[in-house]
Automatic annotation (TrEMBL):
Catalytic activity: 2-deoxy-D-ribose 5-phosphate = D-glyceraldehyde 3-phosphate + acetaldehyde
Gene Ontology annotations of biological process type: carbohydrate catabolic process; deoxyribonucleotide catabolic process
CDD domains listed in its UniProt record: DeoC
UniProt cross-references to PANTHER family, sorted A to Z: DEOXYRIBOSE-PHOSPHATE ALDOLASE (PTHR10889)
Pfam families in the cross-refs: DeoC
Species of origin: Streptomyces harbinensis
Protein name: Deoxyribose-phosphate aldolase
UniProtKB keywords: Lyase, Schiff base
Length: 317
């Protein structure tokens, strides 16, 4: 367990770079072998019939349906929004997704397309995915996204600063983005694939939460290593322990490489067994994905009818 302290004491932790470094490096080291083994065991769990049907619907409701490509067009975004609201037009019982995730210049298009629906607009910001921009540019990017209608902002941390040990710089930037985002929820992307070690992932998770993150997110989906069961397990442990220390609950979003129903169910098992049922909600757990929804719809129909649909049953995103 990480050291616990009341919120007032945690404020002292961020008073200086030295204090923040002492605190983050005072977190217990990660047992990498044990973490990998536990993730592997949980990844073998299977659920059947009614429980599987419920898990599929829960996973659909947790998806941040994402398009983050240079070739994105208003038409593609509107189509994705329509799919997010009614994933299966032939079955009104299919839940809507949690959010549509786009670049800031598409946030207004998504907001208009989703008007009157409960689906949220999520926008990446802060010079996503590399985050290589001056802070004023990152803050302007965030304000522009919120002004365009983003309900949620997915920011990237400065991995170069973090890996250089400039923790207070990273903390202050997250806090500044948190302020610039105003009423929007803030998801802080750690980019685990670039943090190199499990210890760094734990430290970055705590750093983001101390700075005001509403969610911590594994990755941008733009590097070779994105969401994995072990690094998501580690982040779930972090949010669980952070709530025990501060009383504040923070969500988790794995993103990148989650493509099948089997993958999604593994992550739901991970949530239930690590953080607990309190996190089994779109309010506290998201799945960042672009193609996962199609497989969930196919598996859902297979459970309902006993057979797989033809190749044209789901739309091509």
């Amino acid at each position: 367990m990480p050291p616990t302290a009341p919120p007032a004491a945690l404020a002292d932790v961020t008073a200086s770079d030295a204090a923040l470094r002492r605190y983050l490096h005072g977190l217990p080291g990660v047992d990498a072998v044990g973490l990998d083994a536990r993730a592997a065991v949980l990844g073998t769990r299977s659920i059947k019939t009614t429980a599987k049907a419920e898990a599929i619907d829960l996973a659909i409701s947790m998806i941040d349906l994402t398009t983050l490509e240079g070739a994105d067009t208003p038409g593609k975004v509107r189509s994705l929004c329509a799919k997010g609201v009614r994933p299966d037009p032939g079955d009104p019982g299919v839940p809507h997704v949690a959010a549509i995730c786009v670049y800031p210049d598409m946030a207004a298009i998504a907001k208009d397309a989703l008007a009157g629906s409960p689906v949220r607009v999520a926008s990446v910001a802060t010079a996503f995915p590399a985050g290589r921009a001056a802070r004023p540019v990152k803050l302007a990017d965030t304000r522009d996204a919120v002004a365009a209608g983003a309900d949620e902002v997915d920011m990237v941390i400065d991995r170069g600063a973090f890996l250089s040990g400039r923790y207070l710089q990273v903390f202050e930037e997250i806090a500044a983005v948190r302020e610039a985002a105003g009423p929007a929820h803030l998801k802080v992307i750690l980019e685990n694939g670039e943090l190199s070690t499990y210890d760094n992932i734990r430290r970055a998770s705590w750093l983001a939460m101390l700075a005001g993150a509403d969610f911590i997110k594994t990755s941008t989906g733009k590097v070779s290593v994105n969401a994995t069961l072990p690094n998501t397990l580690l982040m779930l442990e972090a949010v669980r322990d952070f709530r025990a220390a501060t009383g504040r609950q923070v969500g988790v979003k794995p993103a990148g490489g989650i493509r099948t129903t089997k993958d999604a169910i593994k992550y739901l098992v991970l949530v239930n067994e690590t953080a607990g049922a309190d996190w089994l909600s779109p309010d506290w757990f998201r799945l960042g994905a672009s193609s996962l929804l199609n497989d969930l719809l196919m598996q859902r129909q297979k459970l309902a009818t006993g057979r797989y649909s033809g190749p044209d049953y789901v739309t091509v995103d």
